[in-house]
Amino acid sequence: ATGPLGSRKAARIHALVLPGNKLSVSAGGARNQYRVQLIATAKAYPVNSPRLSHHSEFGLNSNVGTFSGRRYASLVKAQTALHDGIQAPMVPPQQTVVTPQVAAKQWSKQGKPVLFQWHQKGWFVELNTIVTVKLARQVAQALARTRLPAAHGVIIVDGGTDGTVTTLTWRIGATDYSISGRPDAADAVAMAGSMRPVSGAKSPASP
Fold first, then answer.
1. Sequence-separated contacts (24+) of 92-96 with Cβ below 8 Å
2. Please, what is the end-to-end C-alpha distance for the chain in angstroms?
3. Measured between alpha carbons, how far is 195 from 6 in angstroms, rounded to an integer?
4. CA 44, 66, 146, 96 torsion: positive or negative?
5. Per-residue pLDDT of the chain (207 residues; tens, 9 = 90+)
6. What does the DSSP 8-state code read for residue 150?
7. Separation between Cα atoms, residue 31 and residue 80, nearest integer Å
8. Rounded distance, CA 203 to CA 200, Å?
């Protein structure tokens, strides 16, 4: 099983999004999967409160973080799903130094970067859409200082004018776990770093 190490850390990680506000939780699942959403609210509501049914894009009642798990029929299927949809453009990239320890492949359009890809600490990293070398450096530095929940995984950062949506996915056994957060990519990496296997516990994705 994998779970967050305390709600205080979760609240602290999202302090930039929630000044003076609270985190409420919406959760659900089926036989082989589950999903937990962290929602910015004016006050803390019970889990799955009807007041959480109407989400907004920003501010109060916006989804600032998600944690989920899905169990597959085999290790191979779980590993395949982990890398599903990842591909590089056909055009050759240029090489960009992100940090002294990290070099990334960079694709640009009309002189502006639109895609970065690199490998770091056993994880594949991709930044796409509205991205900058500065953002890539922030992600690389966050990865360098964070103990990640698995030896291998995938990080996708979708850049936008209102911040980023960052998703980290990793596999333990035949289960893929995923966490996403916004608007700060470093916060999402830190949240993933708070996840640890719980020895002897039944997998949350188990029936």
1. 93/117, 96/133, 96/136
2. 13
3. 10
4. negative
5. 344 433 344 444 444 455 557 778 888 988 899 998 888 887 888 888 887 776 555 456 677 788 899 999 999 999 999 988 888 898 999 999 999 999 999 999 988 999 999 999 999 999 998 899 999 999 999 999 999 999 999 999 998 777 788 999 999 999 999 999 877 888 889 889 888 766 554 544 443
6. S
7. 20
8. 9
Measured in degrees and rounded to the nearest 5, phi and psi for residue 111 equal 80, 0
Q: How far apart are CA 113 and CA 167, in angstroms?
A: 20
Beta strand 196-197 pairing with 94-99: unpaired
Q: Are strands 163-172 and 33-41 parallel, antiparallel or unpaired?
A: unpaired
The residues pairing with 87 across neighbouring beta strands, listed in sequence order, are: none
